[in-house]
Amino acid sequence: MxxxxxxxxxxxxxxxxxNVIDTVVAATVNTVVDRVANGEKVSLVGFGSFxxxxxxxxxxxxxxxxxxxKIPATTVPAFSAGKAFKERVADK
Length: 92
Hints:
There is one protein chain. By secondary structure, the protein is of the alpha+beta class. It contains three helices and five strands. The protein has helices spanning 3-14, 18-37, 83-91; strands at residues 42-44, 48-55, 58-61, 68-71, 74-81. The protein has a three-stranded antiparallel beta sheet with strand order 1-2-5. β3 and β4 form a beta hairpin. α1 packs across α2 (18-37). The two termini are 17 Å apart.
């Protein structure tokens, strides 16, 4: 499912106009991205949590040459599914 399909599904289930839903979805995504980028955790009960996670520096290997390279430490976004989400997926 892509963003357009998500908007269509929400419009069908709520009878709201697609342009309103598009605005809300875009604002939601932008808010989550901004908060996580600023080091905050965003929790949506029943759905999951978005948070920044630190990755340590490590050695990697160039697959073409086999040469060892240094991979620097970085911060990456992470998602952890909530209990209800995990149970729903497991039941399918």
